Amino acid sequence: MSEFEQNVLKLLEDINSKLDKLLKTEPAATASPVPSTSAAPFPAATTVKPSAVVDKQEEEARLEEKPPVEGRRICPECGGTSFATHEDKSQVLHQMGGVKIYAKKYVCRKCGYEK
Ligand SMILES: [Zn+2]
User: Fold this and answer.
1) Per the confidence metrics, is the pTM higher than 0.90?
2) What is the Å distance from ligand 1's center to 83 Cα?
3) What gap in Å lies between CA 77 and CA 99, rounded to an integer?
4) 94 CA → ligand 1 middle, Å
5) Distance from residue 39's CA to the centre of ligand 1 (Å)
6) What's the CA-to-centroid distance between 102 and ligand 1, angstroms?
7) Which of 97, 94, 91 is nearest to 114 (CA)?
8) How much is the pLDDT for 70?
9) For residues 72 and 89, what is the distance between their CA atoms, to the nearest angstrom?
10) Ligand 1 centroid from CA 108, angstroms
């Protein structure tokens, strides 16, 4: 064993003994629990962008504002061109984030024919 290694060993033993003294003289420090950093308020993660919600609402609005162009749709029963649109709840076109988009069905305002 070289002199250098012996010196290192001595230093290590010295540090060991010092640590032992520290641990013995400060039992409270070692016994105390780890400082709770989790108690600090964690910044709330906002995963839902408000703009996404607005986009969804605008898309729904667009779908609502797209009635059939009157005059192009003709009732096969009475030849009427005025239709009311109703959501056909039995036909879901697509579902997005819990919001269902239903198919539209057209009801003749004159005779009530449903297409
Ligand atoms: Zn009709």
Assistant:
1) no
2) 8
3) 34
4) 29
5) 68
6) 23
7) 91
8) 46
9) 25
10) 5
Amino acid 32 reads S
pLDDT for 63 equals 65
Q: Please tell me the distance between residue 72's alpha carbon and the centre of ligand 1 in angstroms.
A: 14
The C-alpha atoms of residue 24 and residue 112 are separated, in whole angstroms, by 93
Give pLDDT tens digits along the chain (115 positions). 789 999 999 999 999 999 898 888 765 655 566 665 555 566 666 566 677 777 877 777 766 655 555 447 889 999 998 999 989 999 999 998 989 999 999 999 999 998 7
| Beta strand 83-96 pairing with 99-108 | antiparallel
- How close is the Cα of 87 to the center of ligand 1, in Å? 18
CA distance 45 to 47: 6
Between the CA of 104 and the centroid of ligand 1 the distance, in Å, is 17
CA 7 to ligand 1 centroid distance, Å: 106
